[in-house]
Request: fold
Amino acid sequence: MSEQLTLYLHKASPFSHKVELALIEANAPYKAYQINLFDKPEWFLKLNPVGEVPTVTYGGPSVEPENPSPLSAKIAESNVILEFLADLYPDSGLLPKDPVLRAKVRFFINATTKHIGDSSYAFVKGSEPYANVLKGIGFIQGLLEEGSEFAVGDHYTIADACIIPHLARLKILAENDIGKFPVGMGHKLSEELKAPKFAKIMKYVQRMLERPSLKQSFDEGLITYFKMVFTERVQ
Ligand SMILES: N[C@@H](CCC(=O)N[C@@H](CS)C(=O)NCC(=O)O)C(=O)O
Reply:
């Protein structure tokens, strides 16, 4: 029997979603526990002193998530957890066996973290225009191989799990014009992304959005939550 694995997450968090996608794609058994980020329980801060989701506990006795065991390993940082899951499930294909493809997966993850995560959050927060988002998306598109279904190679990897949570959120926020950016900027970004020059990456995103792992883990009901969080507008 495999060791227990508990994922502490928040449904709106793209970083949490990365881990959830990898777990589902690997067909891994896990427990999920949602943390209220506005009122974090004391015990959660003992699991992760930084107080961030995702955090994973692995091993130790099977306990209630609110009562984590001192005997389990505590693992944080979404990219670290993605690698950990690929190590735990070496036959899942989450990381290819071929060293060159492994390097490409890691490069893709690095590029996503550097070029997509920060710029899309800065745009949605209203602190940066979307030009940097488009630049990042253009860079990532350049990494996608023509005709390939996945980010790297011919299998779903942690590179796919890393990028899609960011782009899925960006897509619904832009389409619904939700964010602290000036009114209309979300729609404008959405229109820009329909240009032929972004066709390759947008087709890739669409394919990933149609996967059962995404449908199972991403609820468009999040729109209501995002509306609540991003109500202030910069006019
Ligand atoms: N670098 C971290 C970022 C995680 C992160 O920023 N999580 C946010 C939610 S999206 C969080 O837990 N924020 C709570 C807080 O900072 O109080 C990772 O990749 O896991």
User: Anything to note?
Assistant: The radius of gyration is 18 Å. Residues 99-124 form the longest helix (26 residues). The mean pLDDT is 95.
